[in-house]
């Protein structure tokens, strides 16, 4: 119920993770259909980039305002920080405060004067400003770091590398918020280079009990995890897509015209293959560089046919090998018989 600086940066990280989920699933998937020339009706979804910008913008973001308050000279309190937020973020549609100039919150008794509220992707969260400035400073005095670095214990010395006299930096230590922001940016950069798979977990109840499903709680999680939009995109789109070259290479043994070698463009080979297999036209679409298959059952059918064909080919290879081996043995025995007979006739 009481959210402070710690919950604020945790929710900021959740917003960034939700943003990359949107980028890699909803946005990128729909853009790929358009890029590949597939007929597609755009599905609307909420992009939480505006919330991330409210928190992390270098000039007008909440973290930037907090750092500015921590670094500026003069009297600095949590109230002055809130006043600055009210000046900078007063007109932002996802920021709410009783002290702001926006009249729609003046009669909101659920929002105390010492709090502000952010409308996150998952819903509205109210934060107590008390302690924001002190927790953001989170300073470790240099003399303490130097004393710990001089310890004889190797582990303690390793935990305080900033105490090394050779690495003393006279600049003000970075704030906790800026360190967390940089850490989140590094995490996002790493995730962007990967091909992530998502497992969405739904908490059925708050009691940690079996066989109890709180419908309101489950529906709330489904909404803020973005599952509804994701399911709509998946149902309207295609379950599987693959470039023409690897697709032809994987399934070419299913068609006599493409096996063992196809002479021509890969797309033409895939078209011949799918026509030969008589797959319904509504089950696939040809993009500029990829084949798109709508339902998983079509892909499963192709895999089953490929598996059966590989078994048939293995049987054929075994049959040919055994025939070659028997013929070779027979011809050798026949040659030996002729040699033995000719030598026998010579001495008889």
TrEMBL record:
<dbReference type="GO" id="GO:0007015">
    <property type="term" value="P:actin filament organization"/>
</dbReference>
<keyword id="KW-0677">Repeat</keyword>
<feature type="region of interest" description="Actin-binding">
    <location>
        <begin position="184"/>
        <end position="206"/>
    </location>
</feature>
<keyword id="KW-0112">Calmodulin-binding</keyword>
<dbReference type="GO" id="GO:0030048">
    <property type="term" value="P:actin filament-based movement"/>
</dbReference>
<dbReference type="InterPro" id="IPR036961">
    <property type="entry name" value="Kinesin_motor_dom_sf"/>
</dbReference>
<dbReference type="GO" id="GO:0051015">
    <property type="term" value="F:actin filament binding"/>
</dbReference>
<dbReference type="GO" id="GO:0005902">
    <property type="term" value="C:microvillus"/>
</dbReference>
<dbReference type="GO" id="GO:0005886">
    <property type="term" value="C:plasma membrane"/>
</dbReference>
<dbReference type="Pfam" id="PF00063">
    <property type="entry name" value="Myosin_head"/>
</dbReference>
<keyword id="KW-0547">Nucleotide-binding</keyword>
<dbReference type="InterPro" id="IPR001609">
    <property type="entry name" value="Myosin_head_motor_dom-like"/>
</dbReference>
<dbReference type="GO" id="GO:0006897">
    <property type="term" value="P:endocytosis"/>
</dbReference>
<keyword id="KW-0518">Myosin</keyword>
<keyword id="KW-0505">Motor protein</keyword>
<dbReference type="GO" id="GO:0016459">
    <property type="term" value="C:myosin complex"/>
</dbReference>
<keyword id="KW-0067">ATP-binding</keyword>
<dbReference type="GO" id="GO:0005737">
    <property type="term" value="C:cytoplasm"/>
</dbReference>
<feature type="domain" description="Myosin motor">
    <location>
        <begin position="1"/>
        <end position="307"/>
    </location>
</feature>
<dbReference type="GO" id="GO:0005903">
    <property type="term" value="C:brush border"/>
</dbReference>
<dbReference type="InterPro" id="IPR027417">
    <property type="entry name" value="P-loop_NTPase"/>
</dbReference>
<comment type="similarity">
    <text>Belongs to the TRAFAC class myosin-kinesin ATPase superfamily. Myosin family.</text>
</comment>
<dbReference type="GO" id="GO:0005516">
    <property type="term" value="F:calmodulin binding"/>
</dbReference>
<dbReference type="GO" id="GO:0000146">
    <property type="term" value="F:microfilament motor activity"/>
</dbReference>
<dbReference type="GO" id="GO:0005524">
    <property type="term" value="F:ATP binding"/>
</dbReference>
<keyword id="KW-0009">Actin-binding</keyword>
<protein>
    <submittedName>
        <fullName>MYO1B protein</fullName>
    </submittedName>
</protein>
């Amino acid at each position: 119920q009481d959210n402070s600086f710690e919950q604020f940066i945790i929710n900021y990280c959740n917003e960034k993770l939700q943003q990359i989920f949107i980028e890699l699933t909803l946005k990128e998937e729909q853009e790929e259909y358009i890029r590949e020339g597939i007929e597609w009706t755009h599905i609307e979804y909420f992009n939480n980039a505006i919330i991330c910008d409210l928190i992390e913008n270098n000039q007008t973001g909440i973290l930037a305002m907090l750092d500015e308050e921590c670094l500026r000279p003069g009297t600095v309190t949590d109230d002055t920080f809130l006043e600055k937020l009210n000046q900078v973020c007063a007109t932002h549609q996802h920021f709410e405060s009783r002290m702001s100039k926006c009249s729609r919150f003046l009669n909101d008794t659920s929002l105390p004067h010492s709090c502000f509220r952010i409308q996150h992707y998952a819903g509205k969260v109210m934060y107590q400003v008390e302690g924001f400035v002190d927790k953001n400073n989170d300073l470790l005095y240099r003399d303490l770091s130097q004393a710990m670095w001089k310890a004889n214990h190797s582990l303690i010395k390793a935990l305080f590398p900033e105490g090394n006299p050779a690495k003393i930096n006279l600049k003000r230590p970075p704030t906790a918020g800026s360190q967390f922001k940089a850490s989140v940016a590094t995490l996002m950069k790493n995730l962007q280079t990967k091909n992530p798979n998502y497992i969405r977990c739904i908490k059925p109840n708050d009691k940690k009990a079996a066989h109890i499903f709180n419908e309101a709680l489950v529906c709330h999680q489904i909404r803020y995890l973005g599952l509804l939009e994701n399911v709509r995109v998946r149902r309207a789109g295609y379950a599987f897509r693959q470039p023409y070259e690897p697709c032809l290479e994987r399934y070419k043994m299913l068609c006599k015209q493409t096996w063992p070698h196809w002479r021509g463009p890969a797309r033409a080979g895939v078209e011949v293959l799918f026509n030969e297999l008589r797959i319904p036209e509504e089950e696939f679409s040809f993009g500029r560089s990829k084949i798109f298959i709508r339902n998983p059952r079509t892909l499963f059918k192709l895999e089953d046919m490929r598996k059966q064909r590989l078994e048939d080919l293995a049987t054929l290879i075994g049959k040919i090998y055994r025939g070659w081996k028997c013929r070779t043995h027979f011809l050798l025995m026949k040659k030996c018989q002729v040699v033995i007979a000719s030598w026998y006739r010579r001495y008889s």
